[in-house]
Automatic annotation (TrEMBL):
PANTHER family: ALDEHYDE DEHYDROGENASE (PTHR43570)
Family: Belongs to the aldehyde dehydrogenase family.
GO function term, MF aspect, one: aldehyde dehydrogenase (NAD+) activity
Organism: Rhodamnia argentea
Gene coding for it: LOC115734465
Keyword entries, A-Z: Oxidoreductase
GO biological process entries: aldehyde metabolic process; response to abscisic acid; response to water deprivation
Active site location: 213, 251
GO CC, alphabetical: cytoplasm
Highest taxon of source: Eukaryota
Name of the protein this chain belongs to: Aldehyde dehydrogenase
Amino acid sequence: METLGDLEVHLEGMREYYRGGNTRGAPWRKSQLQGLLRLLEEREAEMFMALEHDLGKHPVEAYRDEIGCAKKSANYALGSLKGWMSTQKAKLPLGAVLTTAEIIPEPLGLVLIISSWNVPIGLSLEPLIGALAAGNAVVLKPSELAPRCSSLLANALPAYLDSKAVKVIEGGPAVSEQLVQQKWDKILFTGSARVGRMVMAAAANHLTPVTLELGGKCPAVLDSLSSSWDREVAIQRILGAKFGACAGQACIAVDYVLVEKRFSSISLELMKVWIGKMFGENPRESRTMARIVNKHHFLRLKTLLEDPNVKASIVHGGSMDENSLFIEPTILLDPPLESDFMQDEIFGPLLPIITLKKIEDSINFINSRPKPLAVYVFTQNDSLQKRMVAETSSGSLTFNDAVIQYLADTLPFGGVGESGMGNYHGKFSFDTFSHHKAVMRRGFLVDFWFRFPPWNDHKLQLFRSLYVFDYLGVLLTVLGLKKSKQGLSRA
Ligand code: NAD
């Protein structure tokens, strides 16, 4: 990267461009969203290649989770922009005569987006859509761990977007640290809780608001479903949300499964069958499952499995190949709960099944751990569904499916507690990157003389009536027909 001095000059230029009002109008915002759509259309093949190169992602998965998903979001933002940007009238109490009030969304200014490597295009473009729709100037810092995708974004975006208002700065932690030291009007960070803490601490120096999209261990609770059809559907959805989501390297991937002990062997058998159907007899030969992003993460996962007590719990899979960064879809039965494997986010194709006496015990299990980004519950039991809603807390809660909540533009996407703060997607993205300004308008004709000093009992009584909307009380007090019950403590 350039020097820090160059960076500051660049950012000042962007701020000035923003202050000049260039990014505020609807036409500019629309042109940026249309530019993004053109990029996604025209550079799709390059994106497929970059995702294949960085993560071994199959084009279908790449389209489902990144390119197609971003297209859907950009189209949704384009279609909704007029409504999102519109001024909302605000109601006022009757006492506010001849006064009107409005809520006007305005852009925040110059914002920073830092993204992660596992969905390197999608998690860069999704927040970018919101930031541009809201009329901001934006610096995007993609993850260095998906280098082909990062350089594709850096090279391609300027050709489709207003390069005076949108810049991609590439680099790793050192660059990112320099970036977060700068003054921003908002930072949206996607990544680990460890780095999220550092980002938030740096942002605090400038009182910069942050949205932290973090991770954690997302549980799937699998109840003893009554029909074999339902069981098969549930198992497919769980496996899809693990091995079919960047080989488990996804923040909302299923991290572990909770089942009743009596139901564990049938669940395991079904999982084996469906892994075979999804990835073939020799998954290593299949192009379907993504690869581990790099050697560091491969060795991290390998080390987790090397704990003898964890290793002993492997009931399916377990093979790995360092050269091709391949780890077979692996299932473990009751690995030790105190192991790193069951304490840290797994972020890989290793799926532990934890057995419980009763499925209701899953509520305590979830509540005794940090609040997850997502909880998935496969059950037809209404009372369990109600208890899950009322008694657990997580970024999202999905019944009888997993991961699909990510696609809903009408739902906020974000964590709670350790899994993050703030949210985005659809209108929530627009709001995340907007300030909702309260605007009041009054004329000069009418005023409440009692709002100004000097103070006396009479004025106190008027306020007592006014604040409880007792207009008769106000009238009677003005006419001197109602006396203050409680006088002022000092004259
Ligand atoms: P990470 O925290 O290591 O890196 C994220 C980003 O921060 C990268 O762009 C990196 O360059 C940058 N960075 C690294 N060190 C930094 C520092 N000291 N100061 C400032 N920036 C720094 O995370 P990762 O490995 O890229 O992603 C994996 C984590 O992200 C997992 O925990 C996963 O659950 C989480 N995640 C969350 C979401 C979500 O939407 N909630 C999505 C994807 C991943």
